[in-house]
TrEMBL record:
Gene3D superfamilies: Periplasmic binding protein-like II, Winged helix-like DNA-binding domain superfamily/Winged helix DNA-binding domain. The keyword Metal-binding does not apply. The keyword Cytoplasm does not apply. It comes from the Bacteria. Pfam families: HTH_1 (PF00126), LysR_substrate (PF03466). Keywords: DNA-binding, Transcription, Transcription regulation. SUPFAM superfamilies: Periplasmic binding protein-like II, Winged helix' DNA-binding domain. InterPro entries: LysR_HTH_N, LysR_subst-bd, WH-like_DNA-bd_sf, WH_DNA-bd_sf. This is LysR family transcriptional regulator. It comes from Streptomyces luteireticuli.
């Protein structure tokens, strides 16, 4: 016993059903073709193909026009229900897309969340005032986990490599700087701090998993020695300002403190502390809607 054809092989396409409904309404194959924006030969071919598929004659043609056969009347009634259902389906999908495009879930590393993202989101709101944005701020590892789990539409990370399972675009660059309180002995030295000395010095550090810690550990001859490990850049800065010890932080994060002399930058010799800033999303799934627009804004406004 042969397998039945899939339903797509037994039911005419929506374009053919639309044509049949137009013929029934207008009483003319030519007028139906003009209404649908196709040629009369194409309309005739489409109608013949539908009749072959169904195995019945649907329209009787004469010099006075076209009229439905008894079978055509029945098929037209069924076709109307299919077309109406398709229109309802399309309206539902459009509404679903509208709801999706009215929200944006962003996950960003602490430095980007605090010092870059607010400006990008303000610009996004100018073009999409009805988009509701939710933001998760954490270290780069936590951001990658959120994006991979489908809990964020777009992520922003710092670090050396693209997290596994994600596609990425470099949106800017950043530099890490060594900073101390104004009373720290390194302020009075006349030569840069060497990489070995920096590796041997206990530092106020971000937690493991942060992009800042990853770049610093990779740049040193051995993993950085923690004096304190803190979960936010703000906490690290506060500890350094209070005199707890040196720290290596994003240049973006300490600009205000350096300008106000609450922190002092100390040159470091023999090591590069430059890093990429990246937008990330699940591999093979290009961002869409407001996430795509936000990505475009970051490329305009990110540091070079």
């Amino acid at each position: 016993m042969s397998e039945p054809l899939p339903i797509a092989g037994r039911v005419p396409d929506l374009g053919s059903l639309d044509l049949l409904l137009a013929v029934a309404r207008l009483g003319s194959l030519g007028r139906a073709a003009r209404e649908l924006g196709i040629t009369q030969p194409a309309a005739s071919g489409r109608l013949r193909g539908m009749e072959r598929m169904l195995g019945v004659a649907l329209v009787e043609r004469s010099p006075r026009g076209s009229r439905l056969t008894p079978a055509g009347v029945l098929v037209t009634d069924w076709a109307r229900r299919i077309v109406e259902a398709a229109e309802a389906f399309d309206a539902g999908v459009q509404a679903l897309r509208g709801r999706r495009d009215s929200r944006l879930r962003v996950a960003a590393s602490m430095t980007i969340a605090e010092y870059l993202l607010p400006g990008w989101l303000i610009a996004l709101r100018g073009g999409r005032p009805d988009t509701a944005v939710s933001l998760f701020a954490g270290n780069s590892a936590a951001v990658a986990e959120r994006v991979l789990a489908g809990e964020a539409d777009l992520g922003f990370v710092e670090g050396l490599e693209v997290p596994a399972g994600l596609d990425a675009a470099v949106i800017g660059h950043d530099r890490l700087v060594l900073v101390v309180a104004p009373a720290h002995p390194w302020v009075r030295r006349h030569r840069p701090v060497g990489v070995d000395e920096l590796a041997a010095t206990p530092l106020v550090l971000r937690e493991r998993g942060s992009g800042t810690r990853q770049v610093l550990d990779a740049a040193l001859s051995e993993p950085a020695r923690p004096l304190l490990e803190l979960a936010s850049t703000t906490a690290v800065k506060a500890a350094v300002v209070s005199g707890a010890g040196p720290a290596v932080l994003s240049e973006l994060a300490v600009g205000e403190e350096l300008a106000g002399r609450r922190l002092v930058e100390i040159p470091v010799a023999g090591v590069s502390l430059r890093r990429d800033l990246r937008a990330v999303w699940p591999r093979g799934q290009r961002p869409g809607g407001p996430a795509w627009e936000l990505l475009g804004l970051t490329r305009v406004g990110a540091p070079g």
